[in-house]
Design goal:
This protein has helices at 24-33, 67-72, 87-94, 110-122, 215-222; strands at 8-9, 14-17, 36-40, 54-59, 77-79, 95-96, 100-103, 128-131, 135-139, 145-149, 154-159, 163-169, 179-180, 187-191, 195-203, 206-211. By secondary structure, the chain is α/β, with parallel strands linked by helices. It folds into 2 domains: 8-133, Thiamin pyrophosphokinase, catalytic domain (Rossmann fold); 145-213, no CATH class. The strands form 3 sheets. It has a 10-stranded mixed β-sheet, with helices on both faces. A 4-stranded antiparallel β-sheet has the order 10-15-12-13. The chain has a two-stranded parallel ribbon with strand order 1-6. It starts with 7 loop residues before the first strand and ends with a helix.
């Protein structure tokens, strides 16, 4: 079954709003970098700050509180009935953008959070950063990740499939030549040494979790 159906094409990063907790600081940070906003189904029920409006609502529309009220504001609601993907994934294949910032996908129901992490793992071609109250989470790109980190900051690496570190720098516990796996050794609660932080893997995918204040730098590098 072909799922890809691009409805919108954005020139810059976009913010995707989910139906889970959306801390004000996380939402503000996302909108500051990506003011074009789309909602995944019930994420449309979130009141956006003044000056921001939804471009569209996308999903199977089984949790949207008041579709008529949304449409009365002139916001298109796209119902996609297929059940082979989550509402977040429906947004990813319906909106073409150079970068996606997801708010409202972490910190709520555990099953919804796991589904969002699964979307990160499944879609290497869609650069997505999930933003929570304390953390950001992204998939380590195939080319690896490189950024400037402060000494002592938490750096967690979680394998979503068997992976092997091919290069690392700036980590208290290097992952070069280290084998990781979901049911084996994982790389959570590592720490930065300060300066340039680098990590690259084969296999995987591997998720990277960092303090939320790294959003700006990570977004610039991914975009």
């Amino acid at each position: 079954m072909e799922l890809s159906r691009v409805l919108y094409r954005a020139e810059g990063p976009v913010t995707l709003i989910g139906g889970g907790p959306a801390p004000a600081a996380a939402l503000a940070a996302a909108l500051g970098l990506a003011p074009e906003v789309y909602a995944a189904d019930g994420g449309a029920d979130l009141a956006l700050p003044a000056g921001h409006e939804l471009r569209a609502v996308i999903g199977d529309i089984d949790s949207l509180a008041d579709r008529r009220a949304i449409e009365a504001r002139g916001v298109p609601v796209h119902r996609i009935d297929e059940q082979e993907s989550t509402d977040l994934e429906k947004c990813l294949y319906s909106v073409e953008a150079p970068l996606y910032l997801g708010v409202g996908f972490l910190g709520g129901q555990v099953d919804h959070e796991l589904a969002a992490l699964n979307a990160l793992a499944k879609h290497p071609g869609e650069p997505l950063i999930l933003i929570g109250e304390r953390d950001i989470c992204l998939r380590v790109p195939e080319a690896g990740i490189s950024l400037t980190a402060e000494a002592g900051d938490r750096v967690s690496l979680f394998p979503m499939g068997p992976a092997r570190g091919t290069h690392s720098a700036g980590l208290r516990w290097p992952v070069t030549d280290l084998d990781l796996a979901p049911a084996g050794r994982i790389g959570t609660s590592n720490a930065a040494l300060g300066g340039m932080l680098e990590a690259r893997f084969t296999g995987g995918p591997v998720l990277l979790i960092l303090p939320a204040r790294y959003l700006g730098e990570v977004a610039r590098r991914m975009a």
